[in-house]
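for the record, two folds in this file. i put them one after another cuz i was lazy. first one right below, seq on top, structure tokens after. the second one comes after a little note so u can tell where it starts
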Amino acid sequence: MRHLTDPTDITRQETDDIVALALDIIANRQKYSEVCKGKKLATLFYEPSTRTRLSFTAAMMELGGNVLGFSDANSSSVSKGETVEDTVRVVGCFADIIAMRHHIEGAPLDASTVSRVPIINAGDGSHAHPTQTLTDLLTITRELGHLDNLTIGFCGDLRFGRTVHSLIKALSRYEGTKVVLIAPDELRLPDYIKHDVCEKNGVEYREVSSMEEVMGELDVLYMTRVQKERFLDEEEFDRVKDCFVLDAAKMALAKEKMAVLHPLPRVNEILKEVDADPRAAYFRQVENGKFVRMALIYTLLKWAEQGAEPLHNHKGEEVEGLTCPNKKCICNNENVDYKFHLTDGGVYRCIYCSTKAK
């Protein structure tokens, strides 16, 4: 059974195929209007969502299928203590495919180990968000025409930003990718992404402290929220916050052909004055999310019918004496065994949340 819990669950070619299918759906909407007739998507959203949940719902409806599920875990048997594994076993009796968002990292991966239908990770804690990544890749393709040889600036919360982690993983497969990391010290990109993704795949990256010094070289600027609650020192937040707010003055420093993306919601990191700039692609990005999820749902259902085998088994291994220190990991919140994979650098990391073992 093929699932999508992480961007690396599909190959570079499969990623390109899904993006290409989304482009064909955009050009030929009627052609795909009943391809999922009789199929049901379950949306299991354990935390609030607007864009992602409605995007999945709209996607399945436009494919001719039906949607069931919950948008509030408190209205389900989860409130009675039902585990992720048991919930998925039950829901798999009613649905042909499941999209899950969970505040606990690794929950969709854990679900995939017992599910008899495809699982789509719609965001798990601060870990991964692969369907947002597909959305981003489709958006970049539509805005710039290609995915190779791009310089992408990531700005804001790079430490906890699951959309950032997932997109860097995906872009590391494309030729000539250069990454510029624009963040305060408190919110720098985790070392495991820099070492196990960028360095391992030969992706050139550098860290800077303001947008102004790099705006002119970016093909894509990927904005995220800088959240006040991430700072221990309020004065430090006040000192740096304006460095990570995109306004018309900063846009004036950018290339004429550049795309600004944001997974949304935004708070104050992009001023409204930027919305009218033709390079502001974040609302077009939202609509692209529906099309790429249509392509993904259709693809996973076809693979399920064909009995396609997964690209990775994600089984990991138990290592005596090692535990995962991440309190937000599924293995520290439900009865799930600690399992790890050994990186090329000789470090054991949790298979569910990628945290370094202790």
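(here's the note) second protein begins now
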Amino acid sequence: MEKFLIRVHETDERMYYLKSMLKGTTFSRPAHVFAPNILLDAKALGAVEDGAYVFCGRLSEEAEALANSRDITLDVYSRDEKFQATNSRLTAEGALKIVLEKSIKGIFDIRVLVIGFGRTGAAVSRILKDVGATLVVASNSSARQAYALAERVIAAHDFDLSPYDVVINTVPQPIIPDKDAMTIREGTLYIDLASTPAINLEYAKYLGADASLYPALPAKTAPYSAGKAIFDYISEVKDGI
């Protein structure tokens, strides 16, 4: 039976480490690996062989329909609970690194608002709680779980950002209108971990906040471990074939 070396599409440092980990790995069909944050569209999928395995994190509806029509097997990281848990933990570690590097206050002196209490929001809250930060969570659900970590749990609307030294968003929606953004204090560290920022970043910067979007954070702050998470996922899939 013919064997095919897996092809890693390198877009960041984590994929460089992944390529090294997968060196010599073969599949019974052509196999392609894309980074979790890349939206795989029909054009990119058009370059993939019929009947191939494709590992990816996100794909368009058109790409998924094309894959089905060409017998392409899609393995999507975001649909795997184990991978998502590992990625959320690495994202939380990355957020903590940013706080430690950029905050002018010690961790015990900062007051942090975490917006959202999904998988990533919970991981961020847990790690900040563990190191001693004072934590408030904004969430419209999961209040009971959030109270296990947070000093307070507030609704995720009508934001008053003035009490906080650090604001970390995990909700991929523009939920902080400019009238609420006006409450952010000069010097506040605003970290957005979502694919779509919750706040107008340029306006927040104009108001004096250190505001930035941090997409694919594990690839930047822990590229080896981020690559290893993908490697472990691919290995489990391969073992099940």
